[in-house]
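Sequence in, structure out.
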Amino acid sequence: MVMVPSNIRSVLLKFVDSVVPPGAQSVWLTGSRARGDARYDSDWDVVAFHPDAPSDPMRLFESNQISPDRLEGGLIELVIAHPR
């Protein structure tokens, strides 16, 4: 398990809060940052699970959002998924 420093976690969650409507059930960090094998410029892959998100897997990336700023070298890429 990779521990995310509190200052980084705060920035990630602030971006999530700016995009995801209230009611998200959980937020996960995925990809290379979660595995611990990221490079400095790797993006931050985040999934927010929300009950109002489409449940069709083919529509998953319709919600893709990318942060305007870099966080420790990488952009935040957010997808909102149904928690099914």
